[in-house]
């Protein structure tokens, strides 16, 4: 069954949604056609894909023009399924594509659909989106609960837990690390990797680093770019000289396994902002780090807590609490053996987020009817 993927989020653009959608294409056996927007170097990237990629010159919106283009591709390639890379707003095209011949329609949700579910005007649009698809994937139990609360009871069974996968390159990097363990005593190398926005909580991490890092043998490494970059660099410049911080900018996803396997502890101090409108939907970087054998310290916000097994593969700390974060950091920096044990356990635990589970979930979503799709709250974490 060929599937038409309609998305604004696709490589070579860098981001969690882009990674998720590309992995979805692989999980569907590359039997897909992708309709997406123009991106720098997009044509060169598309030549590496084993499936057709059609790029529109502007951002895709649920307009008649986009609907006609998607319907034409659906018919040309005889697609029987449709997958929207992000449910809001492109999922509004669902009913039209069903009339054009789509037999099954699924849509992925991430974090931003939570605020769609919260505000009155967008809540009505989200209900229309869910009403027009067979399955709406949610990335975490947290986002599933938030979205389900905005839906009438008849639509809630259309929610299904479909989480972004961890690629095999991360597990390979972890296997290599665990096969060649470090000596018994070593400085813990700390990294944070995220889009540099307020919601990721990196300002809290810098506050915590100032409390625990004076005299640290290794700098805190921050990976990523975004609108908060200048402010974070200015904050880091005010820290004592013996609390070093290194900014390395954005890193292509293909380079992340190597980067994470060169660290020992990933810190992900995310926040829920704007009275619940801006949560962390999941946080793929956490299981990716676990797969490389890196311990994880994550804030208990949104769906981020679902990325680890606390006490086994990582540790949870309260969100927006630099003092608690500093205490947890201090404890782990002083106990490399504990860090190594968390990383080793995480390497195995991250298998539940692998590509094979995603393939099974997407195949079921595109093969089942509305009445067969279980509610998001039912699958085990």
Outline the structure in words.
This protein is α/β, with parallel strands linked by helices and 381 residues long. It has 2 domains: 3-165 and 355-372, Glycogen Phosphorylase B (Rossmann fold), CATH 3.40.50.2000; 168-352, Rossmann fold (3-Layer(aba) Sandwich), CATH 3.40.50. The chain is 38% helix and 15% strand. The chain is built from 15 helices and 13 strands. It has helices at 16-27, 42-46, 64-76, 94-99, 113-118, 120-131, 141-148, 168-179, 202-212, 229-237, 256-261, 285-291, 322-333, 336-349, 355-367, and strands at residues 3-6, 32-37, 53-56, 81-84, 104-108, 135-138, 159-161, 190-193, 220-223, 245-249, 265-268, 295-299, 314-317. The strands form 2 sheets. Strands 3-2-1-4-5-6-7 form a 7-stranded parallel beta sheet, sandwiched between helices. Strands 10-9-8-11-12-13 form a 6-stranded parallel beta sheet, sandwiched between helices. Helix 1 (16-27) crosses helix 15, helix 8 runs parallel beside helix 12 (285-291) and helix 12 packs across helix 14 (336-349). Residues 368-381 have low confidence and may be disordered.
């Amino acid at each position: 069954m060929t599937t038409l993927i309609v998305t604004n989020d696709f490589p070579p653009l860098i981001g969690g949604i882009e990674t998720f959608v590309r992995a979805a294409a692989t999980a569907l056996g590359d039997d897909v056609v992708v309709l997406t927007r123009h991106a720098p170097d997009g044509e060169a990237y598309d030549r590496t894909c084993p499936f057709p990629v059609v790029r529109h010159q502007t951002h895709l919106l649920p307009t008649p023009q986009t609907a006609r283009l998607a319907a034409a591709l659906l018919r040309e390639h005889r697609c029987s399924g449709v997958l929207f890379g992000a449910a809001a707003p492109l999922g509004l095209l669902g009913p039209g594509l069903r009339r054009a011949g789509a037999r099954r329609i699924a849509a992925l949700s991430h974090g931003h659909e939570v605020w769609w579910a919260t505000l009155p005007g967008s809540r009505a649009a989200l209900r229309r989106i869910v009403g027009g698809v067979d399955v709406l994937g949610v990335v975490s139990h947290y986002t599933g609960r938030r979205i389900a609360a905005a839906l009438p009871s008849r639509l809630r069974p259309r929610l299904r837990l479909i989480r972004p996968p961890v690629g095999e390159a991360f597990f390979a990097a972890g296997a290599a690390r665990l096969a060649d363990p470090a000596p018994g005593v070593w400085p813990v190398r700390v990294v944070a990797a995220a889009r540099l926005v307020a919601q990721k909580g990196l300002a809290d991490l810098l506050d915590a680093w100032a409390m625990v890092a004076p005299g640290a043998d290794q700098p805190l490494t921050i990976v990523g770019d975004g609108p908060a970059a200048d402010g974070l660099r200015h904050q880091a410049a005010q820290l004592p000289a013996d609390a070093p911080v290194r900014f390395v900018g954005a890193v292509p996803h293909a380079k992340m396994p190597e980067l994470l396997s060169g660290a020992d502890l990933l810190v992900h101090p995310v926040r829920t902002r704007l009275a619940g409108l801006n949560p962390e939907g999941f946080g793929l970087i956490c299981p990716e780090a676990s797969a490389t054998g890196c311990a994880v310290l994550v804030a208990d916000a949104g769906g981020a807590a679902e990325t680890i097994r606390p006490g086994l593969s990582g540790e949870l700390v309260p969100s927006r609490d630099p003092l608690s974060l500093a205490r947890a950091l201090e404890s782990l920096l002083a106990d490399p053996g504990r860090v190594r044990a968390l990383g080793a356990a995480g390497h195995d635990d991250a298998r539940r987020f692998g590509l094979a589970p995603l393939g099974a979930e997407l195949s079921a979503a595109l093969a089942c009817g509305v009445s067969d799709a279980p509610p998001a709250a039912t699958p085990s974490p």
